[in-house]
Design brief:
The protein is of the alpha/beta class. Among the domains are: about 1-325, Up-down Bundle (ABC transporter transmembrane region fold), CATH 1.20.1560.10; about 430-505, no CATH class. It is about 65% helix and about 10% strand. It is built from 19 helices and 10 strands. The chain has helices at about 1-25, 25-60, 65-110, 120-130, 135-160, 165-195, 195-210, 215-220, 225-275, 285-325, 385-390, 415-420, 435-440, 450-460, 465-470, 490-505, 520-535, 570-575, 575-590, and strands at about 345-350, 360-370, 375-380, 400-405, 410, 420-425, 510, 540, 555-560, 560-565. It has a 6-stranded mixed beta sheet, with helices on both faces. The protein has a 4-stranded antiparallel beta sheet with strand order 2-1-4-5, covered by helices on one side. Helix 3 (about 65-110) runs antiparallel to helix 5. The radius of gyration is 34 Å and the shape is elongated. This is ABC transporter ATP-binding protein.
Length: about 600
């Protein structure tokens, strides 16, 4: 029963995977489906016509019609080869693009970050995305080859069966155990590859640490080469040992079945020689028998190899379909439109812990702010500052309590509309290696072609001065990843990120350490821009530089994931010892410097 179930699953997965061909390119798929039987049946037809011609030749006469038939079939089958190759190439390109676009669309549909905290999900994501550029090639090459070879084998077995049905039956029966063993080994190989996925990511990380410009300075200064090379070799040896066992097992079993296949072929050939000696078959019949026996044996071995390699690809496709079908545990089904005016935002007894963690990142958080207030969030590292704004932006959902906007749970608002009303500069801001226009315009893609808006955003974000000094234009590519690109300093990259946030027409602005990479002068200028440009907007800004808190209407003090204080700076400095100690400690540091 298990074997039957596995066969059913294989067939279902095979059909499901091949449906992607049709979705990627109906035209190429249709022509390929037409060419497959032509190429597959041509060998049997050519062998049969050759038999008839040989028998006629022995009697002194070969009809011209037979030569014409043979020539036409040979020409069509030969012409199908370059056509098939070209179409497979076209379909491969389209299928790779289709699969990658579907992966990107699926990523777009994942609204939160919870799934990315799941190691199993992340490993599958890395496997699916890293192999999406070549797995579809195998699906086409091995999938089409297997169909073609299967049709060819059936036609050859039909010819063999006319001489002795038992030979055809025995050859068919010999395929079954070899196929099952081959699939089992291929599954072991794939599972070994999947289980080593974390190790594969490790060795990739070790090699990239020594090969990328980002880490080049520290690697050379501290002499890290030997360490990373040693770690790479250690992990590689463990991976190689597992795969070596699987591959050697595959080799020995293949040799055993190859021996059985060759023995059956020799026995069949001996039988045919006896039949010829007894005068029960013609010379042409002997030609057909030897040709079909050889073609069948080669076809069987090739089809088993291709189908097992296809099975390996289908196991990948199962991972792909699993990823495409994954569902978020947190629902983002709210349909309410975002209000035209934000009157208030409140956290009510909110507690949250990250997936797989024992301790809460935030515990019993409650506070309310009104529209247009600037809220500074301060606290030591690990106090939950960034977590709080991630909950507000709905990247995660709290396990307890509610977050409300205008006295309505934020989960009831349409997620796309909701996030459009937020602008943000993250501490770990993204660097997009794109033309400057796009790098900043991504803050509001609808205005990406508006040169004036982008220039103004650069001025507000503090990047315009660098723009002029470096002689850049809006088509200058940022980063050295592509030809013609220019590199930026850490502070300049942060100014690009800040400029991007000013492109957004946001009611709520999140600033997570927005000036961490800036010098004091740039920091002062940026904060002046924030004051001017965020008038009538609600602003949350996380900062370790407590001198900036004076710009805030209120300060939210977090300690160990709990609220330690929430009041204006002048009140906290007098009444909250923890906050006063933090502030005075930093003030003394500046004074001593």
């Amino acid at each position: 029963m298990k074997i039957i179930k596995n066969v059913k699953n294989y067939i279902f997965l095979y059909i499901h995977s091949f449906s992607l061909f049709w979705k990627a390119s109906r035209g190429s798929s249709t022509i390929l489906l037409f060419l497959i039987p032509i190429q597959a049946l041509a060998p049997a037809a050519l062998i049969k016509i050759a038999q008839i011609m040989l028998d006629n030749l022995l009697h002194g006469n070969v009809p011209n019609s037979l030569l014409a038939y043979w020539g036409i079939i040979f020409f069509i089958s030969s012409a199908a080869i370059p056509i098939n190759t070209s179409l497979q190439g076209i379909l491969t390109d389209k299928l790779i693009a289709f699969v990658n676009i579907e992966l990107m669309k699926k990523s777009k549909s994942i609204n939160g970050l919870t799934l990315f905290e799941n190691p199993s999900f992340y490993d599958n994501l890395q496997l699916v995305s890293s192999e999406a550029s070549w797995r579809p090639v195998n699906l086409i090459v091995f999938g089409i080859s297997m169909i073609r070879e299967l049709i060819t084998i059936i036609s050859m077995l039909f010819l063999l069966g006319r001489y002795n049905p038992w030979i055809a039956i025995i050859l068919i029966l010999s395929i079954i155990p070899q196929s099952l063993v081959s699939y089992h080994i291929q599954q072991d190989s794939f599972e070994t590859m999947v289980t080593r996925s974390p190790d594969a990511r490790k060795i990739q990380y070790y090699s990239q640490a020594l090969l990328t410009a980002k880490d080049a300075k520290e690697v050379r200064l501290f002499g890290m080469f030997d360490f990373f090379i040693k770690e790479y070799i250690k992990v590689y040896k463990g991976m190689h040992f597992k795969m070596k066992k699987v591959r050697l097992k595959q080799m020995w079993i293949s040799l055993v079945f190859l021996g059985i296949s060759v023995s059956l072929s020799i026995a069949s050939l001996v039988w045919m020689i006896i039949v010829i000696e007894q005068g029960k078959a013609s010379t042409g019949g002997f030609l057909v028998f030897v040709s079909t026996l050889t073609a069948t044996t080669d076809g069987v071995y090739s089809s088993i190899e291709n189908s097992s390699l296809l099975y390996d690809t289908l196991l990948y496709m199962q991972k792909y379909f699993d990823f495409m079908n994954v569902k978020e545990t947190n629902t983002y089904s709210g349909e309410l439109s975002f209000p035209s005016n934000v009157k208030n935002i409140s956290f009510d007894k909110v507690s949250f812990k990250y997936p797989g963690q024992k301790n809460n990142a935030l515990t019993n958080i409650s506070f309310t702010i009104t529209s247009g207030e600037r809220i500074a969030i301060v606290g030591e590292n690990g106090s939950g500052k960034s977590t709080l704004v991630k909950l507000l932006m709905r990247f995660y959902a709290p396990q307890q309590g509610t977050i409300e906007l205008n006295r309505t749970s934020i989960t009831k608002f349409n997620i796309q509309q909701y996030r459009k009303k937020f602008g943000a500069v993250f501490q770990d801001y993204s660097k997009f290696y794109l033309p400057l226009r796009e790098s900043i315009g991504l803050g509001n893609p609808e205005l990406m072609s508006n040169k004036e808006k982008i220039i103004n955003a650069m001025k507000d974000g503090g990047f315009f001065e660098s723009f002029i000094e470096k002689g850049l234009n809006l088509n200058t590519i940022l980063g050295k990843q592509f030809n013609g690109g220019i590199d930026l300093s850490g502070g300049q990259w942060q100014k690009v990120a800040i400029s991007k946030s000013f492109m957004a027409n946001s009611q709520i602005l999140i600033l997570d350490e927005p000036t961490a990479s800036l010098d004091p002068r740039s920091e002062f200028e940026i904060y002046q821009s924030f004051i001017k440009l965020t008038k009538n907007k609600t602003v949350f800004f996380i900062t370790h530089r407590l001198s900036a808190v004076k710009l805030a209407d209120k300060v939210l003090v977090l300690k160990g994931g709990k609220i330690n204080g929430f009041a204006p700076h002048c009140e906290l400095i007098k009444k909250n010892k923890y906050y006063a100690d933090l502030y005075n400690l930093q003030a003394k540091s500046f004074q001593s410097n």
